[in-house]
Amino acid sequence: MTKNKYSKVIAGTMTWGKWGKQLSKSDFIRLMQHCIDNNITTFDHADIYGDYSTEADFGNAFAESGIDRDKLQLISKCGIQYLGEARPENKVKHYNYSKAYIIWSTEQSLKNLKTDYLDLLLLHRPSPLLQAEEVAEAVTKLKKQGKIKAFGVSNFTPSQTDLLSKYIEVSANQIEFSLTQHTAMHNGSLDHMQLNNIQPMSWSPLGTVFKEDNEKTRRIHKQLGALLQKYNATEDQLLLAWILKHPANILPVVGTTNTKRLTDAMVATTINLELEDWFLILVACQGHKVP
Fold it and tell me: What global pTM score does this model have?
Protein backbone atom coordinates (compact mmCIF):
# COMPACT_ATOMS: atom_id res chain seq x y z
CA MET A 1 0.00 0.00 0.00
CA THR A 2 1.34 3.41 -0.90
CA LYS A 3 1.02 6.26 1.54
CA ASN A 4 -0.82 8.37 -1.05
CA LYS A 5 -3.80 6.05 -1.19
CA TYR A 6 -5.99 8.28 1.00
CA SER A 7 -6.71 12.00 0.91
CA LYS A 8 -4.48 14.27 3.03
CA VAL A 9 -7.52 15.10 5.16
CA ILE A 10 -10.08 12.40 5.94
CA ALA A 11 -13.77 13.17 6.50
CA GLY A 12 -14.97 11.59 9.73
CA THR A 13 -18.66 10.70 9.58
CA MET A 14 -19.38 9.97 13.26
CA THR A 15 -21.46 13.13 13.76
CA TRP A 16 -23.21 13.14 10.37
CA GLY A 17 -26.13 11.04 11.57
CA LYS A 18 -27.89 10.07 14.78
CA TRP A 19 -24.93 10.89 17.06
CA GLY A 20 -24.67 14.44 15.80
CA LYS A 21 -26.25 16.62 13.15
CA GLN A 22 -28.84 14.07 11.95
CA LEU A 23 -28.37 15.23 8.37
CA SER A 24 -31.03 14.53 5.79
CA LYS A 25 -30.27 12.40 2.74
CA SER A 26 -29.87 15.51 0.59
CA ASP A 27 -27.54 17.02 3.22
CA PHE A 28 -25.45 13.84 3.16
CA ILE A 29 -25.16 14.09 -0.62
CA ARG A 30 -24.22 17.79 -0.53
CA LEU A 31 -21.59 17.19 2.14
CA MET A 32 -20.09 14.23 0.29
CA GLN A 33 -19.89 16.24 -2.91
CA HIS A 34 -18.38 19.24 -1.12
CA CYS A 35 -15.68 17.01 0.35
CA ILE A 36 -14.84 15.49 -3.03
CA ASP A 37 -14.84 18.91 -4.72
CA ASN A 38 -12.19 19.93 -2.15
CA ASN A 39 -10.08 16.78 -2.62
CA ILE A 40 -11.28 15.19 0.61
CA THR A 41 -11.99 11.81 -0.94
CA THR A 42 -11.60 9.47 2.05
CA PHE A 43 -14.57 8.91 4.38
CA ASP A 44 -14.11 7.34 7.80
CA HIS A 45 -16.89 5.18 9.25
CA ALA A 46 -17.44 2.65 12.01
CA ASP A 47 -20.25 0.13 12.28
CA ILE A 48 -21.32 1.55 15.66
CA TYR A 49 -21.72 5.18 14.56
CA GLY A 50 -25.22 6.43 15.16
CA ASP A 51 -26.04 3.25 17.09
CA TYR A 52 -25.33 1.20 13.95
CA SER A 53 -27.31 3.55 11.69
CA THR A 54 -24.93 6.12 10.13
CA GLU A 55 -23.35 3.76 7.59
CA ALA A 56 -26.81 3.03 6.15
CA ASP A 57 -27.68 6.73 6.08
CA PHE A 58 -24.45 7.42 4.19
CA GLY A 59 -24.96 4.45 1.87
CA ASN A 60 -28.51 5.44 0.94
CA ALA A 61 -27.28 8.93 0.08
CA PHE A 62 -24.25 7.63 -1.78
CA ALA A 63 -26.44 5.35 -3.90
CA GLU A 64 -28.43 8.39 -5.08
CA SER A 65 -25.51 10.81 -5.32
CA GLY A 66 -24.21 9.75 -8.73
CA ILE A 67 -20.68 9.87 -7.29
CA ASP A 68 -18.36 7.33 -8.90
CA ARG A 69 -17.15 4.74 -6.38
CA ASP A 70 -13.64 5.07 -7.80
CA LYS A 71 -13.62 8.76 -6.80
CA LEU A 72 -13.68 8.03 -3.07
CA GLN A 73 -12.21 5.73 -0.43
CA LEU A 74 -14.29 4.16 2.33
CA ILE A 75 -12.89 3.17 5.71
CA SER A 76 -14.86 1.30 8.34
CA LYS A 77 -14.17 -0.22 11.73
CA CYS A 78 -15.57 -3.24 13.50
CA GLY A 79 -15.36 -5.05 16.82
CA ILE A 80 -17.01 -2.85 19.44
CA GLN A 81 -20.22 -4.36 20.76
CA TYR A 82 -22.13 -1.24 21.67
CA LEU A 83 -24.91 -0.95 24.22
CA GLY A 84 -27.84 0.60 22.42
CA GLU A 85 -31.22 0.07 20.87
CA ALA A 86 -29.77 -1.73 17.87
CA ARG A 87 -28.13 -4.47 19.96
CA PRO A 88 -30.48 -5.10 22.93
CA GLU A 89 -28.93 -8.55 23.40
CA ASN A 90 -25.63 -7.05 24.60
CA LYS A 91 -25.32 -7.14 28.39
CA VAL A 92 -22.08 -5.14 28.53
CA LYS A 93 -19.99 -3.11 26.11
CA HIS A 94 -17.28 -5.44 24.83
CA TYR A 95 -15.22 -6.42 21.79
CA ASN A 96 -15.79 -9.33 19.42
CA TYR A 97 -13.00 -10.29 17.04
CA SER A 98 -14.02 -13.82 16.17
CA LYS A 99 -13.53 -14.80 12.53
CA ALA A 100 -17.27 -15.16 12.01
CA TYR A 101 -18.05 -11.78 13.54
CA ILE A 102 -15.39 -9.84 11.62
CA ILE A 103 -16.66 -11.29 8.34
CA TRP A 104 -20.32 -10.74 9.23
CA SER A 105 -19.70 -7.17 10.42
CA THR A 106 -17.73 -6.29 7.28
CA GLU A 107 -20.47 -7.69 5.07
CA GLN A 108 -23.03 -5.62 7.00
CA SER A 109 -20.93 -2.49 6.44
CA LEU A 110 -20.74 -3.24 2.71
CA LYS A 111 -24.48 -3.71 2.56
CA ASN A 112 -25.16 -0.51 4.52
CA LEU A 113 -22.64 1.59 2.59
CA LYS A 114 -23.97 0.29 -0.75
CA THR A 115 -20.54 -0.76 -1.94
CA ASP A 116 -18.78 -3.96 -3.00
CA TYR A 117 -15.58 -3.28 -1.06
CA LEU A 118 -13.94 -1.26 1.69
CA ASP A 119 -10.67 0.47 0.91
CA LEU A 120 -9.65 -0.11 4.52
CA LEU A 121 -11.06 -2.20 7.38
CA LEU A 122 -9.89 -1.35 10.91
CA LEU A 123 -10.26 -3.17 14.21
CA HIS A 124 -11.81 -0.41 16.29
CA ARG A 125 -10.07 -0.98 19.63
CA PRO A 126 -7.71 -3.65 20.99
CA SER A 127 -9.27 -6.49 22.96
CA PRO A 128 -7.45 -8.41 25.71
CA LEU A 129 -8.96 -11.58 24.20
CA LEU A 130 -7.94 -10.90 20.59
CA GLN A 131 -6.67 -14.02 18.81
CA ALA A 132 -4.28 -12.74 16.16
CA GLU A 133 -4.37 -15.89 14.02
CA GLU A 134 -8.18 -15.88 13.94
CA VAL A 135 -8.25 -12.22 12.91
CA ALA A 136 -5.77 -13.02 10.14
CA GLU A 137 -7.98 -15.84 8.86
CA ALA A 138 -10.94 -13.46 8.60
CA VAL A 139 -8.91 -10.70 6.94
CA THR A 140 -7.29 -13.09 4.47
CA LYS A 141 -10.70 -14.41 3.43
CA LEU A 142 -12.15 -10.89 3.03
CA LYS A 143 -9.15 -9.82 0.94
CA LYS A 144 -9.36 -12.88 -1.30
CA GLN A 145 -13.05 -12.18 -1.87
CA GLY A 146 -12.24 -8.58 -2.81
CA LYS A 147 -14.38 -7.24 0.04
CA ILE A 148 -11.52 -5.25 1.59
CA LYS A 149 -8.45 -3.78 -0.07
CA ALA A 150 -6.38 -3.15 3.04
CA PHE A 151 -6.46 -3.93 6.75
CA GLY A 152 -5.45 -1.92 9.80
CA VAL A 153 -6.16 -1.11 13.41
CA SER A 154 -7.32 1.76 15.58
CA ASN A 155 -5.98 2.71 19.00
CA PHE A 156 -3.47 -0.18 19.03
CA THR A 157 -0.08 0.02 20.74
CA PRO A 158 3.10 -0.97 18.87
CA SER A 159 3.23 -4.38 20.57
CA GLN A 160 -0.45 -5.08 19.89
CA THR A 161 0.15 -4.16 16.26
CA ASP A 162 3.23 -6.39 16.08
CA LEU A 163 1.22 -9.33 17.37
CA LEU A 164 -1.18 -8.97 14.45
CA SER A 165 1.60 -8.22 11.97
CA LYS A 166 3.07 -11.64 12.68
CA TYR A 167 0.10 -13.11 10.79
CA ILE A 168 -1.31 -10.38 8.54
CA GLU A 169 -0.18 -7.06 7.05
CA VAL A 170 -1.27 -4.07 9.12
CA SER A 171 -1.23 -1.02 6.86
CA ALA A 172 -2.80 1.72 9.05
CA ASN A 173 -3.35 2.70 12.66
CA GLN A 174 -5.89 5.36 13.58
CA ILE A 175 -4.96 6.89 16.93
CA GLU A 176 -5.91 9.90 19.00
CA PHE A 177 -3.35 12.55 18.15
CA SER A 178 -3.36 16.32 18.43
CA LEU A 179 -1.38 19.16 19.96
CA THR A 180 -3.04 18.49 23.32
CA GLN A 181 -2.74 14.68 23.04
CA HIS A 182 0.66 14.06 21.53
CA THR A 183 1.92 11.13 23.61
CA ALA A 184 2.28 9.07 20.41
CA MET A 185 5.35 11.20 19.62
CA HIS A 186 7.04 10.04 22.82
CA ASN A 187 5.81 6.49 23.52
CA GLY A 188 7.13 4.96 20.30
CA SER A 189 3.82 4.73 18.45
CA LEU A 190 4.67 7.07 15.58
CA ASP A 191 8.24 5.76 15.40
CA HIS A 192 6.85 2.24 15.12
CA MET A 193 4.51 3.23 12.29
CA GLN A 194 7.33 4.86 10.35
CA LEU A 195 9.57 1.83 10.83
CA ASN A 196 6.86 -0.53 9.60
CA ASN A 197 5.33 1.58 6.79
CA ILE A 198 2.05 1.85 8.68
CA GLN A 199 -0.13 4.83 7.77
CA PRO A 200 -0.97 6.94 10.85
CA MET A 201 -4.38 8.57 11.00
CA SER A 202 -5.40 10.88 13.84
CA TRP A 203 -8.85 11.16 15.32
CA SER A 204 -9.80 14.29 17.31
CA PRO A 205 -6.99 16.25 15.61
CA LEU A 206 -7.97 19.58 17.18
CA GLY A 207 -7.77 18.07 20.66
CA THR A 208 -9.19 20.11 23.53
CA VAL A 209 -8.15 23.55 22.23
CA PHE A 210 -11.71 24.63 21.43
CA LYS A 211 -13.44 22.37 23.98
CA GLU A 212 -11.82 23.53 27.21
CA ASP A 213 -10.95 26.88 28.76
CA ASN A 214 -7.97 26.47 31.05
CA GLU A 215 -4.42 27.71 31.47
CA LYS A 216 -3.11 25.36 28.78
CA THR A 217 -5.67 26.25 26.11
CA ARG A 218 -5.27 29.96 26.85
CA ARG A 219 -1.52 29.66 26.28
CA ILE A 220 -2.19 27.83 23.01
CA HIS A 221 -4.69 30.42 21.79
CA LYS A 222 -2.23 33.21 22.59
CA GLN A 223 0.58 31.55 20.63
CA LEU A 224 -1.63 30.63 17.68
CA GLY A 225 -2.97 34.18 17.63
CA ALA A 226 0.59 35.51 17.28
CA LEU A 227 1.05 33.38 14.14
CA LEU A 228 -2.27 33.93 12.36
CA GLN A 229 -1.16 36.87 10.27
CA LYS A 230 2.22 35.34 9.39
CA TYR A 231 0.58 32.27 7.86
CA ASN A 232 -2.68 33.94 6.79
CA ALA A 233 -4.43 31.12 8.60
CA THR A 234 -7.08 30.31 11.21
CA GLU A 235 -6.29 28.66 14.53
CA ASP A 236 -7.73 25.31 13.46
CA GLN A 237 -5.62 25.42 10.29
CA LEU A 238 -2.47 25.97 12.34
CA LEU A 239 -3.39 23.05 14.62
CA LEU A 240 -3.76 20.79 11.59
CA ALA A 241 -0.55 22.16 10.03
CA TRP A 242 1.22 21.30 13.30
CA ILE A 243 0.13 17.66 12.92
CA LEU A 244 0.94 17.58 9.20
CA LYS A 245 4.50 18.75 9.88
CA HIS A 246 5.34 15.47 11.59
CA PRO A 247 7.48 13.18 9.37
CA ALA A 248 5.18 10.19 9.97
CA ASN A 249 2.78 11.66 7.36
CA ILE A 250 -0.21 11.69 9.71
CA LEU A 251 -3.64 12.02 8.07
CA PRO A 252 -6.10 13.95 10.28
CA VAL A 253 -9.67 12.67 10.49
CA VAL A 254 -11.78 15.82 10.62
CA GLY A 255 -15.21 15.27 12.10
CA THR A 256 -16.93 18.56 11.28
CA THR A 257 -19.99 18.84 9.05
CA ASN A 258 -19.32 22.54 8.47
CA THR A 259 -18.38 23.00 4.82
CA LYS A 260 -16.19 26.04 5.46
CA ARG A 261 -14.19 24.23 8.12
CA LEU A 262 -13.73 21.28 5.75
CA THR A 263 -12.47 23.62 3.04
CA ASP A 264 -10.18 25.32 5.57
CA ALA A 265 -8.86 21.92 6.64
CA MET A 266 -7.63 21.16 3.13
CA VAL A 267 -5.97 24.58 2.91
CA ALA A 268 -4.04 23.60 6.04
CA THR A 269 -2.23 20.94 3.96
CA THR A 270 -0.50 23.77 2.07
CA ILE A 271 0.85 25.45 5.23
CA ASN A 272 4.45 24.58 6.07
CA LEU A 273 5.17 25.72 9.61
CA GLU A 274 8.69 26.95 10.16
CA LEU A 275 10.72 24.79 12.52
CA GLU A 276 10.77 27.20 15.45
CA ASP A 277 7.08 28.05 15.05
CA TRP A 278 6.28 24.33 15.38
CA PHE A 279 8.22 24.24 18.64
CA LEU A 280 6.66 27.50 19.86
CA ILE A 281 3.24 25.86 19.52
CA LEU A 282 4.43 22.70 21.30
CA VAL A 283 5.93 24.72 24.15
CA ALA A 284 2.69 26.70 24.50
CA CYS A 285 0.88 23.41 25.01
CA GLN A 286 3.44 21.94 27.42
CA GLY A 287 3.94 25.09 29.45
CA HIS A 288 7.69 24.54 29.53
CA LYS A 289 10.60 24.41 27.13
CA VAL A 290 11.69 21.14 25.58
CA PRO A 291 14.44 19.23 27.47
Answer: 0.97
